[in-house]
Amino acid sequence: MCQLKGHREFLHAAAAVRQAMNPSPLFLVVGEASFREDNYARGVHTVAKRMGSRDVVRFTGFRADIARTLAAMDPLAFPSYEESFGLALLEAMAMKVPIVACRSAGVLDIVEDGISGLLVPPKDAQALATGIIHLLHDGELRNTVVANARRRVELDFSAETVLNRLETRPKS
Q: What is the radius of gyration, based on Cα positions, of the chain?
């Protein structure tokens, strides 16, 4: 659990979604504390407990079964506000899982707002909640963004495409 991943905003967004929807969806926090971030992780768990979110938020810890974990998500919330490259986004897009993500540098290279996912301002729990609710309620939008996202992964991020880009890149 890295401090730049937006866990607290995610918990606040989950609380807002929980208040807006009945029944409330179940939320997953996937991953574990990075090196020297145990205090931060404890703080995130404490925030969840104080908010009364423990009944709708599950902390899964590290998961090796990415496909199975992603299959349980609809949508994937990606509240990271500093990201070099979001591999989890590509994995979700390939599996046709709709995405609500924060506008951050690495995310902007992957997700196209309103086309292959929804982008919201970083550190804005309410905007994240609104995006989640929008994708949960609008089946047509959800279907459109997942189809576009899958196509984007196939065209722009396939192994063949990436290797071709590397091979044709000017040498410095």
A: 16
Does this model's pTM top 0.70? My answer is yes
CA distances from residue 149 to 78, 84, 89, 145, 146 in whole angstroms, order as listed: 15, 19, 10, 6, 5
pLDDT, tens digit (0-9, with 9 covering 90-100), for 17-38: 999 998 889 999 998 887 788 8
In angstroms, what CA-CA distances link 27 with 76, 92, 125, 132? 10, 16, 14, 11
Residues 93 and 66: beta-carbon distance below 8 Å: no
Report yes or no: 96 and 65 within 8 Å, Cβ to Cβ.
no
CA dist 151 and 155 (Å) reads: 6
H-only helix segments in the chain? 7-20, 38-50, 66-71, 87-94, 105-108, 125-137, 139-156, 159-168
Is the distance from CB of 102 to CB of 33 less than 8 angstroms?
A: no
